[in-house]
């Protein structure tokens, strides 16, 4: 738990320092009079570094904290692909996972941009009440970014995740799912 807390604080400190640097060095902040067809740096060849954070409660895991750092590369205007990491912890349950992700920005107006995306993760799960196990998860998300300037954005997102459980003998027919409300912060380079 202590390692995850240190990782969360280091990640947030890094993102906020990048955000402050970007705000100070930005020569043209995004305004309502900017080119509305292309807000911010969601253009081909740019990189998005960011992540999401959530507090929640699950019937099987209790109160927990989720952190999902991600890095994505824009392969074309408005479409980025990359990878994400899933870190979840509660009093007696931890999950660590990684896998590919993508984001598509489908609507833009002034300093706002709506997006949809997804990821597929391989997760390792550890709980005090039973043996460790692995699972695969697929997540779909929608959200809204508010661009402070052309390089820094934050906002809420809603995600739906489907899990396929796996034990030592293979995949069980058992599946579970959840819906999460997340807060995210991104820096566009």
Question: How is this structure best described in words?
Answer:
By secondary structure, the chain is mainly β. The chain has a single domain (2-25, 40-188), classed as Porin (Beta Barrel), CATH 2.40.160.20. It has one helix spanning 2-25, and strands at 47-58, 62-76, 79-90, 93-109, 112-127, 130-149, 152-167, 170-188. It is elongated and about 50 Å long. 28% of the residues are buried.
Count of DSSP strands: 8
**Rg over CA atoms:** 18 Å
Could you give a short account of the major beta sheet? 8 strands, antiparallel, barrel
Fraction in helix: 10-25%
Order of helices and strands: HEEEEEEEE
* Secondary-structure arrangement, i.e. CATH architecture: Beta Barrel
Strand order of the largest sheet: 1-2-3-4-5-6-7-8
Contiguous helical run count: 1
Structural class: mainly beta
Q: In CATH terms, what is the fold-level topology?
A: Porin
**What do the pLDDT scores average to?**
76
Question: How many separate structural domains?
Answer: 1
Indicate the CATH class: Mainly Beta
Topology record:
Blueprint: H1 2-25, E1 47-58, E2 62-76, E3 79-90, E4 93-109, E5 112-127, E6 130-149, E7 152-167, E8 170-188
Antiparallel strand pairs: 1-2, 1-8, 2-3, 3-4, 4-5, 5-6, 6-7, 7-8
């Amino acid at each position: 738990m202590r390692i995850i807390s240190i990782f969360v604080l280091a990640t947030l400190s890094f993102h906020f320092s990048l955000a402050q640097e970007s705000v100070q060095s930005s020569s043209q902040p995004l305004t309502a009079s900017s080119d509305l067809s292309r807000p911010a740096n969601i253009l081909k060849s740019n990189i998005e570094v960011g992540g999401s954070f959530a507090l929640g409660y699950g019937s099987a895991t209790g109160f927990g904290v989720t952190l999902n750092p991600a890095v994505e590369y824009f392969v074309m205007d408005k479409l980025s692909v990359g990878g994400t990491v899933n870190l979840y912890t509660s009093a007696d349950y931890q999950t660590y996972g990684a896998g590919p992700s993508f984001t598509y920005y489908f609507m833009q107006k002034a300093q706002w941009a709506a997006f949809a995306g997804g990821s597929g993760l391989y997760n390792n799960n550890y709980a005090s009440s039973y043996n460790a196990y692995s699972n695969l998860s697929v997540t779909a998300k929608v959200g809204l970014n508010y661009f402070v300037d052309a390089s820094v954005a934050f906002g809420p997102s809603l995600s739906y995740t489907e899990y396929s459980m796996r034990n030592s003998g293979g995949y069980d027919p058992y599946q579970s799912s959840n819906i999460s409300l997340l807060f995210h912060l991104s820096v566009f380079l």
